[in-house]
Each structure stands twice: as structure tokens, then as C-alpha cells.
Write a structure and sequence with these properties.
4 helices; Transmembrane Fragile-X-F protein; transmembrane; elongated; transmembrane helix
Length: 71
């Protein structure tokens, strides 16, 4: 699944979970309801953690990898 497909999958899911929690249909804790939002933050930190040790070359290589994987 490409990056755009992932984006459009998790946003509606997060909104659905928030709506179900606010209306009382689910009795989950808020950290579980907001999990679709948190994974994007964790993914961004993970990419930075991989790129920082390699400096500028790591960022360039990471950009090339992400461009190749989205096709």
C-alpha cells in the first residue's frame, strides 16, 4: 500500500474511533482510541532516528528509499 493510501486509511479510522468514544458506543481508554494518530508521530520519530546518525547522506538515502518504495 502506498503512502497516500495509508494516510487515507488511518484518518477516517481515527475520526470514527473518536466519534464512537464520545457517543459512548465503545468503552476504550483514550490512548487506545487515539492510537491511529500516535503511530504517525512514532513513524516520523523513527525516520529521524534512522537518518540522524548518517547525517546529510542518511537523509538523502532515506529520501531515495521512500521515493522508490512509493512506486
Amino acid at each position: 500500500m502506498n503512502v497516500i493510501g495509508i494516510k487515507y486509511f488511518w484518518q477516517p479510522m481515527a475520526l470514527l474511533f473518536i466519534g464512537l468514544k464520545l457517543t459512548g458506543y465503545i468503552d476504550w481508554s483514550w490512548w487506545l482510541v487515539l492510537l491511529p494518530v500516535y503511530w504517525k508521530i512514532a513513524f516520523a520519530f523513527g525516520l529521524v532516528a534512522l537518518a540522524v546518525p548518517y547525517g546529510r547522506n542518511g537523509v538523502v538515502a532515506l529520501n531515495k528509499f521512500l521515493d522508490c518504495s512509493s512506486t
